[in-house]
């Protein structure tokens, strides 16, 4: 079966790293078709809208989307696109790679984050002069969905350790519901896991990151802890991410448009190629996904390296080195 990939490079280095990742996908023995769409700052200046309806429709219709980054218009592009795919879970693998400096070289974590509710509900109000409140929304449905995804991901990818982050001792109702839901899903699946208070977990992740595998988190905790994880492996530069919905999914590097180097041809395409590997895994092409990941790992270990990793290589030569490992 052929799958349709919507390709939305966006702005800045998105226009350099996304084509490199598409070139990698095209060398594989998988049946994919590509639909190219525009979004971002340039689109806004040319067409008056950062996210044209055609792009929204292309993403809604496609099986998966590969997105780069958007500049000033990021909030008008990526937030609506994530809601087009209705992404209830955000997945961020955080790995240290041989050849790349990392604080914690044994780190191999996957953050599975609830992506729609919690304190990011958007329900805020001014209740009196100088007093504002926020409504923290937690539903059983979303909590169960993120738990199911997390346990399944751990099982499918051979992670033995599953940790559930929460703060149910203080947020008794909301995180109480989250934890109950996760526990019910875990019991149903006969899954083994630990629960940990999110503040204690932050400390443990710094001290013993190698003891963790998949970490299932409410929205805010996942946001903060996954950036902490990024710090353990040398920053945001190499990290891929997935936004998983009911019917489709969107994959993007964690980094932004990098305006300081955009247009110079030296952006590191690794995070986007690793995002393409997650895309393959989502589509069920596990073997090809692993091959792509291993090819990137080999290039990170042996070079060539772009300037962010201390080398002098171009985006295209890193792309070519990855492709050479695949063919
Ligand atoms: P945005 O507002 O789009 O997020 P930013 O200024 O925050 O842009 P980021 O893209 O988040 O920039 O990048 C932060 C720093 O990391 C920049 O110095 C950038 O050059 C560098 N960087 C980010 N991604 C890459 C990459 N793929 N290759 C090389 N350097 C990168
Ligand atoms: Mg940024």
UniProtKB/TrEMBL annotation:
Keyword hit for Ubl conjugation: no
GO MF term set: oxidoreductase activity
Isopropylmalate dehydrogenase-like domain segment(s): 4-322
Record-linked InterPro entries: IsoPropMal-DH-like_dom
Keyword annotations from UniProtKB, A to Z: Oxidoreductase
Membership in a protein family: Belongs to the isocitrate and isopropylmalate dehydrogenases family.
Name listed for the protein in its UniProt record: Isocitrate/isopropylmalate family dehydrogenase
